[in-house]
Amino acid sequence: MIDQSTIAAANEAADADLRADYDALGDHLSRRGIDIAAIKDKVAAYGVAIPSWGVGTGGTRFARFPGAGEPAGVFDKLDDCGVIHQLTGATPRVSLHIPWDDADPADLLAKAEETGLSFDAMNSNTFQDQPGQAQSYKYGSLSHTDAATRAQAVEHNLYCIEMGQRIGSKALTVWVGDGSNFPGQSNFTKQFERYLESAKQVYAALPADWRLFTEHKMFEPAFYSTVVQDWGTNYLIARELGEQAHCLVDLGHHAPNVNIEMIVARLIQFGKLGGFHFNDSKYGDDDLDTAAIDPYRLFLVFNELVDAAGTPGFDPAHMLDQSHNVTDPIESLMNSAMEVQRAYAQALLVDRTALAGYQDTNDALMASETLKTAFRTDVTPILKMARRDRDAAIDPVATYRRSGYRARVAETRPSSDGIGGGIV
Ligand SMILES: [Mn+2]
Fold first, then answer.
1. Ligand 1 centroid, distance to 274 Cα (angstroms)
2. Which of 378, 350, 355, 375 is nearest to 365 (CA)?
3. Per its record, what are the GO molecular function terms (predicted)?
């Protein structure tokens, strides 16, 4: 972890400027009838989960270019996640991926305690084969034509639930790579029937206080069809399985220009929004940093979430899921957590009474401007003050660079293998 005195010294140097900026924004918001302290408190209470696999350098199927001091295993990953939370105060939970993060639950809990973290949703992996595995997932897992392969995939998900129960997780996220690469390769209906039959077995093992999240993805690794290709199929799954099943929306898993915020609204309306994997994309599932390409879209998603806040039972899980190919993953994850907080803060500024009035009177221009006014407000001083109040860093990236953390861990962590593919 980073020495708290390093953070305190950096904050001290930035404090006077921050106070001036915060007070100026407070005056401005006050004229709009908004209490800046109330917004800051909500932002400070907000958290987004870090995926354990996000702290390693990602890659494409062409190559991976790891940096120095890459985490060598789950305990290194938790150290990195602890640093991210220490500096941002915005990432209190980590989402583990089995078998990549398989370890003794007692050791995981001890490390979580040491790093100030807790565990978010468990993620199963039936999209790649593990050493010594009896059946191959080359042609699918939960929807495979072979019953023994489906049973193996179900069994793995049950193991993830058991593991999660021992470390305080309350959800299982299931994403499968199942699909087809050629027209005619798979019978769409039979394949989906097999998927549902397997998913029902997983659902049946879910503890009463757990949720099951299923994640849709339009393409990759299957390039002609995927079994859970879009939110429609995802909704069907959640409806077929039962009350504890919900849809997970990964922003990158849609075709370009799809109206994701509207999908979010539909899932909220019918009680099936489970949560998010935040990231951004330009062309496809690019796994770019959250808000790197289209911050307005992220804001529009949060606009729907803020609009729905207070709905009984509405408690979507928030997690980042992105691949860091050319940046230090810790820096990218810190920035992305702050971008999610920013979108939330901006959405809190929307004048909802005015917006409803413009909607009712069909004043399209002023309705749009109402959203834009909130989006254009620079809420940076609110985010900084929320961090400062909890002894996190006013400027996390600058403080991280000054701390020398990466160079320090590089001395003890073995250098990572840059050969081979991509997805981590
Ligand atoms: Mn995802």
1. 13
2. 355
3. isomerase activity; metal ion binding
Q: How confident is the model at residue 421 (pLDDT cuts 50, 70, 90)?
A: very low
Q: What is the Å distance from ligand 1's center to 266 Cα?
A: 20
Comparing CA positions, the residue from 282, 288, 277, 229 lying closest to residue 250 is 277
Tokens of 215: 């994640």
Query: Does residue 229 sit in helix, strand or coil?
Result: coil
pLDDT more than 90, % of the chain: 96
Residue that the structure tokens 């929320």 belong to = 386
- pTM comes to 0.97
Identity of residue 72: A
* CA atoms of 322 and 295, how far apart (whole Å): 15
- Is residue 185 a contact partner of residue 208, using CB atoms and an 8 Å limit? no
CB distance 55 to 77 below 8 Å: yes
Peptide bond into 99 cis (omega under 30): yes
- pLDDT score at 313: 87
**Cα-to-centroid distance, 250 and ligand 1 (Å):** 5
pLDDT tens profile 173-207 = 999 999 999 999 999 999 999 999 999 999 999 99
User: What per-residue confidence (pLDDT) applies to 418?
Assistant: 61
- Tokens 């922003």 identify what position? 251
Distance 38 CA to ligand 1 centre (A): 32
**CA 357 to centroid of ligand 1, rounded, Å:** 37
Q: Taking a C-beta distance cutoff of 8 angstroms, is the pair 277, 285 a contact? A: no
396 C-alpha vs ligand 1 centroid, how far in Å?
25
Residue type at 175 in one-letter notation: W
Quickly count: other Cβ atoms within 10 Å of residue 22's Cβ. 19
pLDDT above 60: residue 82: yes
Name the DSSP letter for residue 49.
B
Distance 277 CA to ligand 1 centre (A): 5
Q: What is the pLDDT of residue 72?
A: 93
